[in-house]
């Protein structure tokens, strides 16, 4: 059975991607990854009456629904995401909570909104997953009103550093040194340093006000727990398999054994996640 399959063979990743309501609802109960980013984002937002908010890459609705609750009835909140299955779930939650939040299916690179439509643009670990980040930031600038605040979070290059060191060692031990560059390319594509984000946001026309860097720790028992964690199977495992190439089953099995040995020596497996929270304003 592939490590991507769930307990008793339930095809977790495929079911989520296909929009299965039960699988998507289960995903909604996995906030451990997004919550620390979202908390920092919410702390950085300047609240005021009548705020028009756009969440770029809103997914299942966090932290937009929490922000809408904090603003109360005077706020006007909109979420944008290309994944309709997630938006269905987000709409259900908004309805159940009595929140008048609008969710729109669309691409961040071509937002279906007029110029200057929002006073606050947020993105919780979403801008590092778009196809064209420079185009997306230009769109954020276009739909932001003069004086609007942009607040974004993104995980940084040191994310899961110990895990990736172990991954590279396993590739070398198995004579797959050529795959190390593929692994590094994946990391660089998804995790820009703080300086790069500052440059990109500034190049889009925003004036960067602050760049706050923090770290949280994701603790698991061992490598076996890691490869069976639903959130990791969904969001990370496909890229790990792609980096390992056709030898992925053998590589990941060896990596699991190495991580288990590391955890036994250290009393568990700790995944460090450094991230930034950047606040900027449209002049």
Report on this model:
36% of the residues are buried. The protein is built from 13 helices and seven strands. It has 283 residues and is of the alpha/beta class. The protein starts with 11 loop residues before the first helix and ends with a strand. It has helices at 12-17, 21-27, 34-44, 64-71, 84-97, 133-143, 161-173, 178-190, 194-203, 223-228, 230-235, 237-244, 248-266, and strands at residues 52-56, 76-81, 102-105, 118-124, 144-155, 207-220, 269-281. A seven-stranded mixed β-sheet has the order 3-2-1-4-5-7-6, with helices on both faces. Mean pLDDT is 92; it is low at 1-9. It has two domains: 1-14 and 158-189 and 222-267, no CATH class; 31-156 and 192-217 and 276-283, Vaccinia Virus protein VP39 (Rossmann fold, 3-Layer(aba) Sandwich).
Briefly summarize what is shown.
The chain is α/β, with parallel strands linked by helices.
Explain the layout of strands and helices.
Elements: H1 12-17, H2 21-27, H3 34-44, E1 52-56, H4 64-71, E2 76-81, H5 84-97, E3 102-105, E4 118-124, H6 133-143, E5 144-155, H7 161-173, H8 178-190, H9 194-203, E6 207-220, H10 223-228, H11 230-235, H12 237-244, H13 248-266, E7 269-281
Parallel strand pairs: 1-2, 1-4, 2-3, 4-5
Antiparallel strand pairs: 5-7, 6-7
Helix pairs in contact: 7-8, 7-13, 8-12, 12-13
